[in-house]
Amino acid sequence: MCENKLTKSLFNESKLANIKVKNRFVRSATWENMTTEDGHLTKELYNIYEDLSKNEVGLIITGYGNIVKEEQPNPGMMGIYDDSFINEYKKLTSIVHSYDSKIIMQLAYGGTKTKFNLGDRIIYAPSEVPERSTNVLGKAMTKDEINYIVNDFAKAGKRVKDSGFDGVEIHGAHTYLINQFLSPYYNRRTDEYGGSLENRMRFLIEIYYKMREMVGEDFPIFVKLTATEFFDGGLTFEETKLICKKLESIGINGIEISGNVHGKAKLMVGQVFDGLELKKEGYFLEYAKIISNIVNIPIITVGGFKELDNIAKVFNETNISYFGLSRPLLAEPNLIKRWKDGDTKPAKCVRCSKCRTPEGNYCTIFNKCTF
Ligand SMILES: Cc1cc2nc3c(=O)[nH]c(=O)nc-3n(C[C@H](O)[C@H](O)[C@H](O)COP(=O)(O)O)c2cc1C
Asked: In a mutational test of the pocket of ligand 1, which residue from 60, 269, 351 has the highest number of ligand atoms less than 8 Å from its CB?
């Protein structure tokens, strides 16, 4: 066990909403690209989740799951669009729980952010505004289509609960559909879903209320948000602060603060953005810090963490409660156990972001073994 005074408390048990988490480390949502074609689990996926939980990851957030069958924004992503998934997720959650790790499922509606299967899928958007990096144009949603997606997010949330997950995370970041509704750049609607921030939040809030109605008061619901869109006319941090306050007031149990990718910039994974090379620890830390001071629900920060001492310092000096890691755990699934056991060298991950491959997403440098 690591004896460093600063880091010790990172390994203490805490409660995230009503979830007992054995430490402060979260595997942030990571799409593995390893399901069957229709989103069902494979042996490789069971092995990956078992490996993470065996190696002391306190809370695992699954890769994003698609809530409606016809909208799969990327290949190999987990499905949760009908009840046929429940039994296999029960198996997954019980594997993770057998190691005293916890697991929540991330739910997403994709949209125009990817170029996958453009001809085959219906691609909804708040308005007909091409996505800045893919140039893909979606169909502006009618009120009926909005209701359909709101209901299907909620139904998927209920399946998540019925599958034994400890909670659910709504993906409201990374320019996927919910993020686009929040954004004044992508949302040009003139009805009750567009215009003022209150109107732009309506879609997310309706999803939350409908899901809450279906999962009950005690089931934790989290949201992942983009801190700011980093371009003129996009969602600003001032607006995100107001969104967080609103989410807290309606009963959201915690918020994960992330960022966006636009054009050639790959800010989410810390590559060059407007000439600024982001090699620093904690790409969105400054934003998460501020939000953690204005709300009283747990804040998870994600993006660019690889040094234990730095994480411990942030943990001790701010109100941020949990630390999300994605690529470092692809490179070293045993990272948290290694740190806990006293080998506190930084994560090996070199942030090359070459982990997305056509045969599955894994670390092509340090962990080529894909089970
Ligand atoms: C291969 C890969 C898949 C990802 N899949 C998702 C996903 O399904 N949902 C999501 O919200 N973020 C996803 N992300 C983003 C991560 O959760 C995280 O926000 C980002 O990688 C920055 O954290 P890191 O520096 O620890 O990698 C993915 C990242 C990678 C590298």
From this structure: 269
